[in-house]
Structures are given as structure tokens and as C-alpha cells.
User: What shape does this take?
Amino acid sequence: MTTAPIILFVYNRPYHTERVLESLEQNFLSYKSDLIVFSDGPKDMEDHDEMNKINAVRKIIRSKNWCRTVQLICAEKMLEQKNPNVMEYKKSSKNTKKLLLFKTTLFLAITFYSI
Assistant: This one.
């Protein structure tokens, strides 16, 4: 069975990031899935509190293999709402017909990705 790549957008919410990754890890097909995480950068490079939160999020993502593979793409600054990396990924993945897109405010049921 071929699984769709899972795209996760993260920013500066370490608690939410860890919760969504834990819920994803518990899914039946996560061990067969590729996870691509887009981590947005800070709005203001001088905001050290925001940068600390962003770094904490990135550390959580790197802390373990949440899925079969985990690819973390980090932006140096905020890319606004539209992330061109998703479109580039889609263009380069010609064999991929589907992508699963998530933000950190979503927690997944254990059976969400079992079909």
C-alpha cells in the first residue's frame, strides 16, 4: 500500500506541535508514511521570545522519528500564508497524487489514516 505524504505546517507552538506529532505517531499507517514539516520563521528577527519558541518546535520535530521518514524544512523568516515549498514539493513528486496537509491545531484520531 502506498501512503500519501503528510505535510505539517508549524510555527511557534511547541505544545501543540508535540501533541499533533504524538497523535500522528499513534496512527496505524504512520510507520509507512513520509512526513514533511514546514517550519515558518519569525516575523521579527529581533524577537528572542518568538525565536525561542520556534527553536523549541524544531527541536521537538528532530527529537524522534515520528513517521517512516521526517523531513524538516526551516524558513529563516516568516513566509506569510502561502508557502511556495509545498507547490515545489508537489511538482517534484509526480508519482504522488495526494498530500495530507495539517496545521498544529489539529489532533488526529488513531484511525484517521487507516484506510
Remarks:
- Residues 48-62 form the longest helix (15 residues).
- The chain has three helices and four strands.
- The chain has one domain: 6-103.
